[in-house]
Amino acid sequence: MPVSQPTTPLPLSVFVIARNEERCIGAVLEAARALSDDLVVIDSGSTDRTVEIAETAGARVFHHDWAGYGPQKRLAEEQCRHDWLLNLDADEVLTPELIEEIRTLFAKGEPPLPFYRIKVTTVYPGDEKPRWLAEHNDVIRLYDRRVGRFPDHPTWDAITPPKGAGVGLLKAPCYHFSSPGLHHYVDKFNRYTTLQANTQKLKPYPVLAARLLLGFPLDFLKAWLLKRHITGGLYGFVLAFSHAYSRFLRNAKMLEKHRLQRRSADRRKDSPP
Questions:
Q1: What's the sign of the alpha-carbon dihedral 38, 60, 53, 87?
Q2: What CATH number labels 13-176?
Q3: Integer Cα distance of 51 and 53 in angstroms
Q4: Is the pLDDT of residue 244 over 90?
Q5: In what order do the strands lie in the sheet with 38-43?
Q6: Which of 10, 201, 7, 231 is nearest to 111 (CA)?
Q7: Which residues, at least 6 apart from 169, have a Cβ–Cβ distance to it below 8 Å?
Q8: Between 267 and 273, where is the model more confident?
Q9: Which end of the chain has fewer CB atoms within 10 angstroms, the N or the C?
Q10: Residue 40 to residue 102: CA distance in whole angstroms
Q11: 3-class SS at 127?
């Protein structure tokens, strides 16, 4: 939905990291322009129209080869002109209600707290708004970078507030158009689980074995009930199953890493001095 542009932008920068995100990035930036005149995009080598669309929307686009989620976001933080930042994924669109809530937060100057969580709410492929009781993740995306920043970690990109720092929660949702379809979802979690297996601390072999044997039904039920894919009908069942499989795949790749390391150690042991 088009958003009318304000006469006075907020002292707020909005940043996005992207690669081949032409599907949604135009809508993301169009909505963000209702808050800020400083839009920053860190592109890691798009081969589609992502850069063109972002520049047309008024964003300052910087190229940086992919270094992981945390490093890309930290680079974006450094390019922003303001200390107050709003981070959005390239498929997350601010709703008019959330835009108004953020503008109200800045109405009397800087917000009273240094961190605010927003409700990133899933929208199924092909839909324009969330299903009934759609799951949402309450994540810190609006924050004062003088108080806290994203970690310099390749897979962990959640802000951890300093001890004692206040954290607020905004009520209005941000719509997350996470995927155009299952093919995209499967490609995404295949890439991400490989990154996790290669960068995260390797869990002990017995733990991985137990998770592979017992974890799938538990992960399915978490997605089916706690993430409320049960309200999504048969398609919700498919997505809950896919979520459980992504967890299974991450553990399987870590188990494979154990196996390869063991084989390599055995070969070194058997090699003549």
A1: negative
A2: 3.90.550.10
A3: 6
A4: yes
A5: 60-63, 38-43, 13-18, 84-87, 136-144, 115-122, 167-176, 92-94
A6: 10
A7: 116, 117, 119, 138
A8: 267
A9: C
A10: 19
A11: coil
- Which residue's entry shows tokens 């998770």? 211
Domain boundaries, the chain: 13-176, 182-270
The full length of the chain comes to 273
Is pLDDT at 199 greater than 90 in this prediction? no
Q: What is the mean pLDDT of the chain?
A: 93
Residue 180: both structure tokens together: 């155009």
Burial 100-118 (b: 16+ CB within 10 A, else e): ebbeebeeeeebebbbbbb
Q: In this structure, are residues 146 and 110 in contact, taking their beta carbons and an 8 Å threshold?
A: no
At 152, is the secondary structure helix, strand, or coil?
coil
Beta carbons of 35 and 9 less than 8 angstroms apart: yes
pTM: 0.85
Counts of helices then strands in the chain (DSSP H, E): 7, 8
Structure tokens of 221?
Answer: 């039920």
Pairing of strands 136-144, 115-122: antiparallel
Residue 138 has pLDDT above 90, yes or no: yes
Position 185 scores a pLDDT of: 84
